[in-house]
Design brief:
By secondary structure, this protein is an alpha/beta fold. The chain has two domains: 8-15 and 266-393, Aspartate Aminotransferase, domain 1, CATH 3.90.1150; 20-260, Aspartate Aminotransferase, domain 2 (3-Layer(aba) Sandwich). It has twelve helices and twelve strands. It has helices at residues 20-26, 28-31, 43-63, 76-94, 108-119, 137-143, 166-175, 249-288, 314-319, 341-345, 350-354, 367-393, and strands spanning 8-9, 70-73, 99-103, 123-127, 148-152, 179-183, 202-206, 217-221, 292-293, 304-308, 324-325, 356-360. It has a seven-stranded mixed sheet with strand order 2-8-7-6-5-3-4, with helices on both faces. Strands 9-10-12 form a three-stranded antiparallel sheet. The protein has a two-stranded parallel ribbon with strand order 1-11. Helix 7 links the parallel strand 5 and strand 6 (179-183). Helix 4 (76-94) runs parallel beside helix 5 (108-119).
């Protein structure tokens, strides 16, 4: 690694470290047990296939699915593309409809997949959200047409951590015979998910958001009633013909281990992360006065906090904090100098959006780190405000 690592890492929504327990499980599959899971004519292949299937069962158990409904992919971006493009292309090819509904605060890969389908003849409706980040379920129900194929609403927003009412959305979709897809990259392993209770037909998973390696994910594809997709990748027909390519057994094993750990620790870890978040908010408010919390606090994933500081530029603030890893929003749009489109969708003006940061707590965050990070942020905010006041007086 070039350069010193940051002193405190609080960007767990961007990525998580691989849990050492996950690493221990996956490492032998790179060398000692290196078989191709599709070479079932010999022991090496059968051993790899069995390991992959066990991992599939563990991932399925975490979301209340059947193992055969889990399709391994390279991550949530691929899963989202496969779910949206696959479902819409199947419908267009067979004359089953052409309309897609999504939400303005979705991840870019969802919004851009919808745009790609519009270029192929689909019609797309993008719904807004309220000031807390929630989609209006009444508006969603009214937007469904006779030719609606798919509704795609993310489970947990990657910037503001808001949990959408999945069961209510799923019920609306099921009643109208419409597929319900959810990008659950920020939700799996963090909140309770049940694809049957929530009437979810397609669900995207990302390994590196849940302490597995980058480069592995999954797509849940409902069997009954069946969610039909056209494959994005042509090849040997692996993964029930939905996603061809040789399974990366070490990574599938890792995702299974991560799912098993998350399921065992879900409730306890959630309570711990909420406590850390409350400590951060309390410490910031004690020293800085009122701060703006972006998005609902009552329906929010435990490890997320998105806060705004009046009169502060977040980019300049982070420049003063080289030993602290926080962010202004999605890592996938960090190259943009524009204020967050998610925060603007909540109704924040440009100044408020530019003054907001995302703080992400995770499995390896300690109370001491939270207190240290809070003090670092407070000092940087005070310095920036003092500098702004001095410049204004000149």
């Amino acid at each position: 690694m070039n350069g010193a690592p940051t002193a405190v890492y609080l960007d767990y929504q961007a990525t998580t470290p691989v849990d050492p327990r996950v690493l221990d499980v996956m490492m032998p599959w790179f060398s000692e047990s290196f078989g191709n899971a599709h070479s079932e004519q010999h022991a090496w292949g059968r051993q790899a296939a069995e390991a992959a299937e066990l991992a599939r069962e563990k991932v399925a158990a975490l979301i209340g699915a059947e193992a055969r409904e889990v399709v391994f992919t390279s991550g949530a971006t691929e899963s989202n593309n496969l779910a949206i493009k696959g479902a819409v292309r199947f419908a267009l090819r067979h004359g089953h409809g052409k309309h897609v509904i999504s939400v303005s605060t979705e991840h870019k890969c969802v919004l851009e997949s919808c745009e790609a389908m519009a270029a192929e003849g689909a019609e797309v409706t993008v719904l807004g959200v309220d000031e807390n980040g929630f989609v209006d379920c009444t508006a969603l129900a009214e937007a469904i047409r006779d030719d609606t194929v798919l509704v795609s609403v993310m489970a947990v927003n990657n910037e503001i951590g808001v949990i959408q009412p999945l069961a209510k959305i799923g019920k609306i979709c099921r009643a109208n015979g419409v597929l319900f897809h959810t990008d659950a990259a920020q939700a799996v392993g963090k909140i309770d998910l049940d694809v049957n209770a929530m009437s979810i037909d397609l669900l995207s998973i990302s390994g590196h958001k849940m302490y597995a390696p980058k480069g592995i994910g999954a797509l849940y594809v409902r069997r009954r009633p069946r969610a039909r997709l056209l494959a994005e990748i042509s090849g040997g027909g692996q993964e029930r013909g939905i996603r061809s390519g040789t399974l990366p057994v070490p990574f599938t094993v890792a995702l299974g281990a991560a799912a098993e750990i998350a399921q065992a620790d879900l409730s306890r870890e959630g309570e711990r992360l909420v406590s850390l978040r409350e400590t951060m908010v309390s410490r910031l408010r004690d020293r800085l006065g009122e701060i703006a919390v972006n998005g609902s606090m009552d329906h929010r994933v435990p490890g997320n906090l998105n806060v705004g500081f009046a009169g502060i530029d977040a980019e300049a603030l982070m420049a003063e904090l080289p030993e602290l890893a926080i962010s202004t929003g999605s890592a996938c749009t960090s190259a943009s100098v524009e204020p967050s489109y998610v925060l603007k969708a909540l109704g924040l003006d440009v100044a408020a959006a530019r003054g907001s940061v995302r703080i992400g707590f995770g499995r390896f965050t300690t109370l001491g780190e939270v207190n240290t990070a809070a003090d670092m942020i407070i000092k940087a905010v005070e310095n920036q405000r003092s500098g702004n006041s001095a410049r204004a007086a000149e």
